[in-house]
Each structure stands twice: as structure tokens, then as C-alpha cells.
Amino acid sequence: MSNPENSNAALAARDLKHLWHPCTQMHDHESVPMVPIVRGDGAWLIDADGRRYLDGISSWWTNLFGHANPRIAAALAAQASTLEHVIFAGFTHEPAIELAEELVRVAPPGLERVFYADNGSSAIEVALKMSFHYWLNQGHGEKTRFIALSGSYHGETLGALSVSDVALYRKTYAPLLLTPFLAPSPDSYEGEPGESPAQVAARRLQDLRVLLERHAHETCAVIVEPLVQCAGGMRMYHPDYLTGLRALCDEFAVHFIADEIAVGFGRTGSLFACEQALVTPDFMCLSKGLTAGFLPLSAVLTTTRIYEAFYAEYSAGKAFLHSHSYTGNPLACRVALETLAIFRDEPVLERNRQLAAHLARRLEPLRGHPHVADVRQTGMIAAIELVADKATRRPFPSSERRGLRVYLHGLRQGVLLRPLGNVIYFMPPYVVTEQELDLLVDTAISGIARAVTD
After folding, report:
1. Which residues, at least 6 apart from 226, have a Cβ–Cβ distance to it below 8 Å?
2. Can you give the pTM of this predicted structure?
3. What is the reaction catalyzed (predicted)?
4. Annotated binding site: which residue ranges?
5. Domain 347-380+393-454 CATH assignment equals 3.40.190.10
6. What is the CATH number of domain 73-345?
7. How confident is the model at residue 4 (pLDDT cuts 50, 70, 90)?
């Protein structure tokens, strides 16, 4: 039997005595259970009382190849016995060098320089600062603004939050934030009746053109999440938008920042989402799946042209000003190398396409559900839009927290689903089986039935 001191109840009580959790109203935990996880096994998490939970969201979209993956764990252990960390200013090490070489090899052509940071938000900060600083070094100090998409989310540090369009965050922290120009999202869900995703993309590119005609002279970059606006509700759009975006950025002399933090490393069906539009951004931000969920690490890939704008005598004052204590951490770099080696050694993307096809078949019947306005999918990301009225797409009031009902039902069934408001989504580890996908979908279906019943 479990030691009572290490039971779920005991660990939860200890947690709630001192800890403050992210994106959480801690008062909720007077009724919503805190779940202490003691180990992972493939796509599963095991709590202190021995209950198992299928991780349907890859623990905030980070895990690719299963929890406690033995191959990655062995690489981490080997590196830990050799070099755990070293200052990355004036010093270097082989894991960082090898990882940069491998990232350049697999990235869209033209991305040849790698700048490391600690997490996704930090990568966005790097890209924003680097874009602004590039234009400053080029004699264009008037370029100080950014264009983001409506409904966008790029992180929660102040710069990243500044180019995000989440009403709650902007209402709370508005006095601290930069103000971006917002281009209408090419989100296919918001298309006109009868309009195809490609037609939505074309129309929204015209909106972006108008914005650039007015503001390109003061704009550093356009920042987007390619193909899927994840935290904004898993909004999905056609690759044509990225093709047109690249052309517009070239025409109006602004940078294209691709936030591939959540969508990179196979989530959308290709290694990087930008590949589906055959475009190379000026900056590509990576994190999350970069280390398959093992350690914090991010990277910003950029071009030689941008790098050379900073390369000068010290006295010129053009050096890029950004650093983190754990920049280029050897442990994280070695884990990332092993993650990329798995992509190289195993048919990951092929298997993902098979899994995605199975998931699509299982979700198809939900399209007729009276409280489902949309079922959408891009690769290994799928989402279900719950609404109060299907005909008008009238949403449930947010105060009713219908998504929370699905989450709680999932926990009772041994499944981790963490909806975005009233959007139920799936983003499982790539080691999930078809039978486990069936469990995810069946649990979501039964959870939705409970959630929409008054």
C-alpha cells in the first residue's frame, strides 16, 4: 500500500500550502483536484495513488516521444556526468555546436544562425529585439512597431505578451505592454459562408496589405504562428497565407517572424509548419518539442544577412544585447540532439500521418453534434468547438466553464484533457497508439455530453 505521507491527498496538501501554479485561479483547488504525478510511462502519467492518466495534451504541448523516454534519458544522464553547464559568453561546447549544425540542416533553407534562449517566451523576446535592433543598425530607427494576428498568443513575458491578442491579458497588463498593429486572422472558422480556407487566406492577405501600405515604414516585423494559432483556441488556416505573407514582407521591407514554438517538430504533419508553404521566415522561434519535453530550451534561427548587420568592431556599438545565465545549457542541448536523432532514425512523420488519419476518422461523427460548431485538424493537432447554438455559433457564456466540466470528467476517466475555454483539443505524444486515441476521443465525447447538459 502507498505510504499515506506520499499519497495524493498528502502531497496535494503540501503543495497548496506553499506553491502558486501558472494560469490558475488557486481558489479553484478548493473543489478542483490537485493531481500529484510521481512518474511517467510513454503517453501516460501516474499519480501518487497509482492512478494512470493518458496525456492528451503532451503536458502543455512539449512531450513528443513519451514520458521518461529511455533513449533521451540515457543521453541526458551521459551528458550530466560530463558537463552540466558552462558560461556561453566566450566559451562553447560540443552539444551546442552540434545542435546548431543539426538545426540549420533540418530548418528551411537560408536559416543559418542559431541564438539560444531558455523557453518559448524568451525566444519571442529575442526575435522581437533582434528585428528591431537590425533595423536600428541599418539606420531605420523609426521602425519600432510590430504586426500580429488577431487572436494571437506568443507568450507571457512582456514583449511576447505585447504581440499577443488575448483580451484578458491585455486588459490586465495593458499599461506595461507595447501596442501592436493587429491584422485580421486568416482563421478558417471565421470565414464567410461557403468560403474555402484558401479564399479566407487570400482575403486576409489583402487586409494585411492595406495595413502594411499604411504602416510598413514604422514596422519591424510581422509575427505569426504558422498554420495553427494554438493558445488562441487552436484556430487553423491555409498555408497560402504564409506564402503571401512572405511575399508581402519582402515587398514592404519588414521581417517575417515564425513562432513555431508549439507547431514545430512534427505537430502539423511536417517537421516545421513553414515547410507546407515552402517559405523561409527571417526568424524562426523554436522550443517545447525541441527537447521532447525533458528540459527548458529555445532557439531562434535567423539568416546570415541579419547576423551580418550586427557584426562590426566593438566601437561601432552594434552587438546584440541579450543573455540568459543558462544560454546553450549542455544538458538541454544534448537532449535536443537526441530528440532530432529520433526524427532522423525513425519514421516519425509517417507514423504521425497514420495516427492523424485515425484521429480524423474518429472525430468525424462529432461534426453533426448539436453543440459542436466545428471540428478542425492540422496533423497531430485537433480541436472541437463547443457552442450553445450550432446554427448561429453562439458560444456558451465563459462564466459557465463548460470546458472545465470536460477536464474534470477526463480526470475521472483517467485522461488528461485541458480545454482552452470551450475548445476541446487533442495534442498527444507521438508514441500514442490508435487504441489510446480512441480512449481520448471516447472520453471527450462523453465529457461533452455531460458539459452541454444544463
Report:
1. 242, 258, 259, 260, 263, 268, 272, 273, 274, 276, 277
2. 0.97
3. (8S)-8-amino-7-oxononanoate + S-adenosyl-L-methionine = S-adenosyl-4-methylsulfanyl-2-oxobutanoate + (7R,8S)-7,8-diammoniononanoate
4. 60, 120-121, 153, 259, 288, 323-325, 418
5. no
6. 3.40.640.10
7. confident
